[in-house]
TrEMBL record:
<dbReference type="InterPro" id="IPR050491">
    <property type="entry name" value="AmpC-like"/>
</dbReference>
<dbReference type="InterPro" id="IPR012338">
    <property type="entry name" value="Beta-lactam/transpept-like"/>
</dbReference>
<feature type="signal peptide">
    <location>
        <begin position="1"/>
        <end position="33"/>
    </location>
</feature>
<feature type="domain" description="Beta-lactamase-related">
    <location>
        <begin position="48"/>
        <end position="362"/>
    </location>
</feature>
<dbReference type="InterPro" id="IPR001466">
    <property type="entry name" value="Beta-lactam-related"/>
</dbReference>
<keyword id="KW-0732">Signal</keyword>
<dbReference type="Pfam" id="PF00144">
    <property type="entry name" value="Beta-lactamase"/>
</dbReference>
<dbReference type="GO" id="GO:0016787">
    <property type="term" value="F:hydrolase activity"/>
</dbReference>
<protein>
    <submittedName>
        <fullName>Serine hydrolase domain-containing protein</fullName>
    </submittedName>
</protein>
<keyword id="KW-0378">Hydrolase</keyword>
C-alpha cells in the first residue's frame, strides 16, 4: 500500500470563504467508527484512517458511505454534538451546499431533452431584464455558461458587506433567521462589475446557480423545488433529501453544525446549525445524506437520469485555472488523483458543513461524506486518496 499525492483543489463558495478566512483549531475528539455493513473491512481501512485523522485534526465529526463491487460500507467518526459528546451517525442528514448545483443541472438538461429550453439560450430569454448593471448583461450569457461557471458574473458571497451581514461574526448571529429572496442576493452581485467576459474562463460564482434555479422555474412554470422532487428525489426514492424552504433547522437524524465566525478569535467555535433555508435557495439549500448522494450520483453516471446526449454535454468540461488536475462540466467536476484514478465529483460547503461526493467514471465505486464543521478543507482530498488509491485492488 503506497501513499499517493493529490494536487490541492481550492474549495468552492462558502467552503473557500470560511476556510480562507478562519484558522482551524486543533481540537481532538474521540473517534467512533461504525462497523462495515458489507464487504471486507480491509477495503476501506485506509479510508477509515483518513476520516479519523480529519477528526484528530479538529473536525468535530464525519459521516461517510462508500459503495463498490463488494457492497456498502458506512462509517461515522467523531461527535455530532460538542456539548453532549453524542457520536455522529451513519444516517445523519446534512446541508450539501453547492452539491445542489448538480441537482439543478440535471433538471435543466432534462428540460433541454424535452425541448423546453436550449443550453445556448441567453439568460435574457428566460429572465428578461434581470441580469443588468455595472457591465453585467444577460443578453451575452448563456445557460451553458451559468452551469459551467464561465459567465463571468460576480459572486454575491464575495461582497464584503454581505459576508459581514450574513456569514461572519455578529452579523450572522443577528441575521441567521432572516428570509432572503433570490433578488436580494442577485442585487448584491450585480452591484459589482463582471469578473471576466462571458466564456473567457471558469470562475465559480454562486450567482450562476441562483440564476440557473430561476430558469428552472421559468421553463417549468413552478417552483424549482417541485421540479427537483418530481424528477429526481421521488423517482430515486431519496428519502433523506429535502428542501428546507424558510425553516431553520435540520431534520433528524442529524448532528449539530459548527462554525468559526470571528476572525480575531479563531479558537471560538459556535453552534451554527440553525439558519433560514432561504439564504441558500437555489445554490446551496438542499439537505441530504451520504446514502442519498451516492444513490443520486450513481444513477446519474449510469445514465438513469439523462439521455446519452445530455449526459455527454454534462461531462464536457472546461479547465479550472485555480486547480490543476480538475475541470468543471455542467454541475459536475472531474479530478485526476495522484495515483492516476479519474473521478467525477462535487464538493459543497455551508457555514457549519462541508460535504463531498465522488465516483469513478462508470459510477460503480462511490464515496460520499460530510463534516459537521466548516473548516478542515485540507483533509478532504486525503480521504479521496485513501478510498480510491490506497485500498486493495478491486473493480472500479
Amino acid at each position: 500500500m503506497r501513499t499517493t499525492t493529490t494536487r490541492k483543489r481550492p474549495a468552492t463558495g462558502l467552503v473557500a470563504l470560511v476556510a480562507a478566512a478562519l484558522t482551524a483549531t486543533a481540537l481532538t475528539h474521540p473517534a467512533h467508527a461504525a462497523g462495515d455493513t458489507a464487504g471486507a473491512p480491509a477495503a476501506h481501512r485506509a479510508t477509515q484512517r483518513a476520516i479519523d485523522a480529519a477528526v484528530a485534526a479538529g473536525v468535530p465529526g464525519v459521516t461517510a458511505e462508500a459503495r463498490d463491487a463488494d457492497g456498502v460500507w458506512k462509517s461515522a467518526s467523531g461527535v455530532a454534538d460538542l456539548t453532549t459528546g453524542a457520536p455522529r451517525g451513519v444516517k445523519d442528514r446534512f446541508r450539501v451546499g453547492s452539491i445542489t448545483n448538480t441537482f439543478v443541472a440535471v433538471v435543466l438538461l432534462q428540460m433541454e431533452a424535452e425541448r423546453k429550453l436550449s443550453l445556448d439560450d441567453t439568460v435574457e430569454r428566460h429572465l428578461p431584464g434581470l441580469v443588468t448593471g455595472n457591465g453585467n448583461d444577460g443578453r451575452r450569457i448563456t445557460v451553458r455558461q451559468l452551469l459551467n461557471h464561465t459567465s463571468g458574473l460576480p459572486d454575491y458571497l464575495a461582497d464584503p458587506r454581505y459576508g459581514e451581514t450574513y456569514v461572519l461574526g455578529d452579523g450572522y448571529l443577528q441575521h441567521r433567521y432572516d428570509t432572503l429572496t433570490p433578488g436580494t442576493r442577485l442585487r448584491v452581485a450585480f452591484s459589482h462589475p463582471p469578473l471576466s467576459e462571458p466564456g473567457a474562463r471558469h470562475a465559480f460564482s454562486h450567482t450562476n446557480d441562483i440564476l440557473a434555479a430561476l430558469i428552472v422555474e421559468k421553463a417549468g412554470g413552478r417552483p424549482y423545488e417541485s421540479e427537483v422532487r418530481d424528477r429526481i428525489v421521488e423517482p430515486l426514492r431519496l428519502g433523506a433529501t429535502s428542501h428546507p424552504g424558510t425553516s431553520a433547522g435540520l431534520p433528524r437524524p442529524s448532528g449539530r453544525d459548527y462554525g468559526k465566525l470571528f476572525l480575531a478569535q479563531p479558537e471560538r467555535i459556535l453552534d451554527v446549525t440553525e439558519v433560514n433555508g432561504s439564504q441558500g435557495w437555489g445554490d446551496g439549500d438542499i439537505i441530504s445524506s451520504a446514502r442519498d448522494l451516492n444513490r443520486f450520483y450513481g444513477a446519474l453516471l449510469r445514465g438513469k437520469l439523462l439521455p446519452p446526449r445530455q449526459l455527454e454535454k454534462m461531462k464536457s468540461t472546461v479547465a479550472n485555472p485555480d486547480a490543476p488536475g480538475s475541470s468543471y462540466g455542467l454541475g459536475i467536476e472531474r479530478l485526476t488523483l495522484g495515483c492516476g484514478t479519474t473521478l467525477w465529483y462535487h464538493d459543497g460547503g455551508t457555514l457549519g458543513s462541508l460535504s463531498m461526493v465522488a465516483m469513478t467514471a462508470d459510477g460503480r465505486h462511490r464515496l460520499a461524506f460530510n463534516y459537521n464543521g466548516s473548516w478542515g478543507g485540507e483533509t478532504l482530498l486525503p480521504i479521496l486518496d485513501a478510498e480510491f488509491c490506497e485500498a486493495p485492488a478491486r473493480s472500479h
